[in-house]
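Worked example (supplementary).
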Amino acid sequence: MSEIRIENLHKSFGAHEVIRDISLTISEQEICIFVGPSGCGKSTLLRLIAGLEEATSGSIMIGGKDVTHLEPYDRKLSMVFQSYALYPHMNVRDNIAFALHTAKLPKDQIAEKVAEAARILRLEDYLDRRPNALSGGQRLRVAIGRAIVREPAAFLFDEPLSNLDAALRADTRVEIATLHRSLNATSIYVTHDQTEAMTLADRIVVLKDGQIMQTGSPTELYDNPANVFVAQFLGSPKMNILNVQLGENVITIPGHKEIIFPAEAMPQDVQLGVRPEAISLVDPDQGQFTGVVKLNEYHGGSRTVVADIGVENLVTVQVPANQSPHIGEKIRLKCSIENFHIFQTNGQRFLTDSGKFLEAKLSDFDK
Amino acid sequence: MRRRMGPRWIVFAVAGFVLNFPILSTLMTAFKGPNEVNRNASLWVEAPTLENFATVLTISDRLNVYYYLWNSLSAVLIGAILPMVVAFPLAWPMVRRGYGRSILFPIIVNLRALPLIVFAIPLYMMYATLGLLDTHLGLGLILAIVNLPLTLMLLVNAIADLPIELEEAARMDGARTGGLLIRVVLPLCRPALITTFVFGFITAWNEFLFGLMLTTSEAVPMTVGASLFFATSGGGVQWGVASAVMIVAALPPLLLGLIMYRRITGSMVAGAVKG
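After joint prediction of all chains, the assembly is encoded as:
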């Protein structure tokens, strides 16, 4: 297993720049997830690492060795494709053994390795079947089997779960997590699904327009998003962003009373981010602002309430399922200020003069 | 709910009969004796006889049907297999790398649009110089050229339809271009190869012009040989014998078509991608 280091990587298709100056290090045994909306370049980045695309400039190092101009196989990586890409004319055994055959391993070693992979992936009963006689989940397991027999430097996964139905997807996600723990393999995993990213990742790389928006552990990204894009991309329902005025130790949501927010910053327009689960419904005499219920969605364990708080601002609130305001009802909302995320109007996280995120100084507030 | 199938079957039967009338007529005539051929033009045979087939299948000092069949078969196999051998390694780089897509591919495909007679005189002189006249190889080579455009076109389409991920997966798994072609692309092109073989075989088998022009005695194919049966003893056309030889000549491609029909329609890539 090896560390993968990417330095100043660029990739253009004609005049269209898909990857713009990406530098990134993926440590040994880590599962790193590239996540972003479609067209953000996450799959291209994976294919560049795999060697299926050639970089326009920059370098890729695997285990300290520069592989930028090497053929895919010589990079010693395995890839699980979105479509699985199983060879339809071969049975499961030959599919798994394909790379071992091309490496010209002795027959008994091949048989041993295939048997081991089949055991791990519970494919023993299917070794003589062709891929078209397998279910979607089994096909994915064959694709994973094909990847693990090679004992690669790292695994690459290109949206492996996107062809499975929702229930199977959740199960398989757990399986992949378990498998990763037992193999302890460096893995790069591409997905557009933020749930997959949050649950599987040691580290998440959020991409947009071919650039890294932020890198960090799921909790770091969730608790301290560097910009509005990351803040809204991770978490469901997504974070509320309101245009507000930051004054001296107050924040004003247009059309509402000032909220006391002691902080070191000049008065100016900012964007206020609040996660739906950080807002709660309270009695009319408490709370900070009032809204009119527009939508009330039932999710079983919880409800999502969308409230109109005036001046074209809608706020999404996640509440326990037993709180069910009816549509058109006036509700009172409360959010504690330690859950406020302050962004500049350009979408970047507000940094104070000392370079820290702008947050309420709760010690002052307590006085 | 059961539909009334009767009317439908009547339509099928009428269409089948009309479309196949020439074949049926030839088949029936082959079983008629020399006298009956002149008298009875109907499809009904009054006194069925195998006399015509016996004449065709008997080796005379002038005519040998087995020899013509053998000549056809050897030339046709060259003419059907050689284009696949040439076109397969040509089609893959055309599709995947774009080599020759803009000039070579249209030129080869447009060969098909040319009337073959255009080749006649230069080809004859070339063959005479090279000693290819009246040989199986000579006839096979020109049949291969006749078949090349269709073969290339079918293979280009077949390869373009293969999911690129399969080739990428093979490259990740260490297959170099040669191994990739032989172990992944070739097996997946099997239906297309079978289709081109059947079409190529039938086209080459039915070819008459070059058979007539380029052979004289050693390599005369079945199509040309059949025409020699038409007038054997000077006194006009022997329709019964002519019909019998046509049936014999038509059997090999017919059998091939029947055997391969199911394989032509099958698809190899089912189960390759998606769930």
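Two points are worth noting when inspecting this output. The two ends of chain B are 34 Å apart (CA to CA). Chain B has 14 helices and no strands.
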